Amino acid sequence: MSDTKPLKRAPELQPVSHDHHQGLLLCWKIRTGIKKEVPLECIKEYTDWFFENHLKPHFELEEKYIFTILGNDNPLIEQALSEHSRLKDLFNATTDLKENLSLIDKELEAHIRFEERVLFAEIQKVATADQLAKIKEIHTEEAFVEKDDNTFWL
Predict the structure, then answer these.
(1) Mean pLDDT for the stretch of residues 123-140
(2) How many CA atoms lie within 13 A of 78 on its CB side?
(3) Which pTM does this prediction carry?
(4) How many other CB atoms sit within 10 Å of the CB of residue 99?
(5) In this predicted structure, what is the pLDDT of residue 1?
C-alpha cells in the first residue's frame, strides 16, 4: 500500500471541488428518489433545473479556464470533455427516464471522482499562479442555492 497522502487541493480550486460535492449530492438524490419510487418526471424536473443552474455553468468554467491548463490534446482532458458531452446528452434525454436518470447517477459520480482524484491533481501540479488566480477570479465561493419547491428525496 502506498504511503503517500492525497494532494491538498489548491485554494483557488476548492470552490470547484465544492461544486463537485453538490454534483455527488445530486447523484444521491437521484438514487434516493428512484428507491422511494418518486415519479420519474419529478426527479427529471429537478435534474433539469440542476443541470441548467449548476452543472452547465460548471462545465463551461472547467472547459474554458481549467482544462486549458493542460490543453485539449491531453488524454485526461480528452476523457473529461468526452464525459461532459456524454453527460450533456443524458441530461437532455427525454425518453427512458429511469434508465437515463440511473446513468446520470453512475456516470456523473464516476466523472466527479475522476476529476477530483486524477485530473485536478495533474492540473494543480502544472498550473501557474496566474492561471489559478484567474480561476479564483472567475469562480468565487458562493453558497449552493437549493430548488426548494422540489425536495423529492426527503
Answers:
(1) 92
(2) 3
(3) 0.90
(4) 12
(5) 46
Assigned C-alpha cell, 144: 449552493
DSSP class per residue in 52-116: IIIIHHHHHHIIIIIGGGT-TTSHHHHHHHHHHHHHHHHHH--SSHHHHHHHHHHHHHHHHHHII
**Rounded CA gap, 51 and 45, in Å?**
10
Please give the DSSP secondary-structure letter assigned to residue 134.
Answer: H
- Quickly count: other Cβ atoms within 10 Å of residue 119's Cβ: 20
> pLDDT band at 150, cuts 50/70/90?
confident
Query: CB atoms < 10 A from the CB of 26, how many?
Result: 22
57: how many CB neighbours lie within 10 A of its CB?
A: 13
Residue 7 has pLDDT above 70, yes or no: no
Closest CA to 55 of 43, 46, 65: 46
Report the distance separating Cα 27 and Cα 154, nearest Å: 14
The tens digit of pLDDT for each residue in 34-88 reads 999 999 999 999 999 999 999 999 999 999 999 999 999 999 999 999 999 999 9
Q: Which of these, 120, 117, 121, lies nearest to 109 by C-alpha position?
A: 117
CA distances from 8 to 12, 87, 114, 117, 121 (A): 11, 27, 16, 11, 9
